[in-house]
From TrEMBL:
This is galactinol--sucrose galactosyltransferase. Transmembrane segments: none annotated. It is an enzyme of class 2 (transferase). SUPFAM superfamilies: (Trans)glycosidases.
Amino acid sequence: MTITAVPSITNGRLVVRGKIILTGIPDNVVITPGKAGSAFLGATSENAASRHVFGLGVLEDYQFLCLFIAKIWWMIPRVGKSGREIPMETQMLLLEAREDSALVDEDSFDAPDENKFYILLLPVLDGSFRASLQGTASNELQLCVESGDPSVRTSQALEAVFLNAGDNPFELIKDSIKLLAKHKGTFHHIENKKTPAHLDWFGWCTWDAFYTKVDPDGILEGLKSFSEAGCSPKFLIIDDGWQETANEFQKEGQPFVEGTQFATRLVDIKENSKFKSYGPDGSETNLRDFIGTVKKRCGLKYVYMWHALAGYWGGLLPSSETLKEHNPKIEYPVQSPGNLGNLRDIAMDSLEKYGVGTIDPEKIYDFYNDLHSYLANSGVDGVKVDVQNVIATLGSGHGGRVAITRKYLGALDESIDKNFRDNNLICCMCHNSDSIYSSKKSATARASEDFMPNEPAFQTLHIATVSFNSLLLGEIVVPDWDMFHSNHTTAEFHGAARAIGGCAVYVSDKPGKHDIKILKKLVLPDGSVLRARYAGRPTRDCLFVDPVMDGKSLLKIWNLNKLTGVLGIFNCQGAGSWPLKEAVHDLPIKHSQDSLISSHARPSDVEFLDEIVGKNWNGDSAVYAFNSGNLSIVPKNKRFQVSLDVLKCEIFTISPVRVFNETLEFAPLGLIDMYNSGGAIEDIMWISKDLSGTLKIRVRGCGRFGAYSSTKPSCCKMDIEEEKFWYNHENGLLIIDLQGGCNLRDLEIEY
């Protein structure tokens, strides 16, 4: 729960639940009480300016996790113990405190959770200003507020940092986002949004398969190869490469100029020549015809098209005849000192040089509506809108970065609502808080930088990043953990993560390059996936450790299904290094005894298990290991050991043992040949019959259904038809062979 004791500043110290969090607080720092024990930190200045950096006080000896914008498009996590380790552009700061002492040492990580509480600081949007946090070499925590427009100035930011505390870090973040959403009124919590239907179906994105060379023949070849492999996608993203664009800075016959590709501009809202063809009789085949063909021939339910928030990377071409009604003008991005102080990005550096063809924010809706209505009339079901954070660098003359972001995103939401069913929008490259706290309708967004199949050192960073970023993003959108390749050295690693991430499951395989064994662990025969209920997040004991570079920690990610929990454990050590942090491991990856890392897990690593059980739980859980097939009964807080090599993982289904008829102990596991087996179970009930009874389980899918049962059943039936089953008297593992379709059905187990 979230604690309601109000934070206060006394004698230059910030005190939260009796703990001194910051010391040496300057007199210009102010605190304003909020709802439910929360507060806002802010500061005042004698002078008005478009950018301020305020000292908030000294932060020392607190274990922290922060999420910060490392590159202008993307957040990554960082852990540490003092203010000097907090990077520029920090957008979330979570502190761990202890009731007995604020000081945390290396030997205290196994202290009982009840001795801990958590303090959350969220730099937010304050009027026209966007806030972020950063540390100094003297451990001072600083607040940066900026408008992004020299003419938009202020001398105070009173609601720049939201402050709250609680005993459960996940409840704390959720409650805080809900309080903020209600107070600010500029964004909504994910529970108040409509989620796109594509999330529950297997998909294919064309990007890594073709990059910008995508064309209809390649798409048809790819869909055919999936079908022949036995796993057909139900949603398709036609990524960058379908639009009519022009690069003014690359002259024909001249050597390629690196960077100009990002200044390429949109010429027309309609498809390029690759998606048009002409018959001998002069008849034209266009995007509408192609979409109709692939849906009918390949059984696709949803087709999404890619475009950038500004139309294309370099915006719209001002000289385009077909776009002149939108009156695009070249404007030049200005990056904030925070962006420039972290990682530079070639795309932004290029756009600063060549400019972006922008549309007046007051008229951007007309462009989106023209584009989306054309796509919708062509049979397209939704869009992936990329390169979003660039808009925040174009705020000068438009009221600042917050104002222009809200105009663009509001117009985008309005157009999506008008032209597409089911809020079919995927946002991308949108991690700045201008976008996060302006997200009123968009319900899914990419959680990290791209999956990069040719970058071995990025694979572990990807999994760690999406899980940590989901702590914040998962309260506002359904985080999209990106595509991956099923036929790749890290396919099992990525596939298992997607299965427990609560995210869309889609790949970017090249035609004919599929690993059907991996795909069948993710996708049911009808193309649906067993998606977990929430965003996958690191377990409580992983929040303040570095699973990529500390050389000793495994990454544990938890999630819930309707009746079971799921716990994924990943060895992300020794295969990559965080940017902006000194590497401590040599590359390339080395697999040896030295790379084997051991850690502990327990059923209670899955939060809120008791909420899915009800009253008939005895506190034990059936723990089923996907790879080894081992089943054991483990008390809620009892630890078990897990050892993994680099880039290896194990998925544990955690199913609370329910007691029926006073003597029968039972725990459903689900489809045990799927990574997230418990996602197949919808409901369970006991029907008594004198001294016997029947368990009725609502289940979807086919294959091997597993459960722990303390007693061997007399028979098992699916929709009245008797099914084969096997029972292991030693460990109580019951396996039933479910035949038939993937629709919801009733499995009856008689005792």
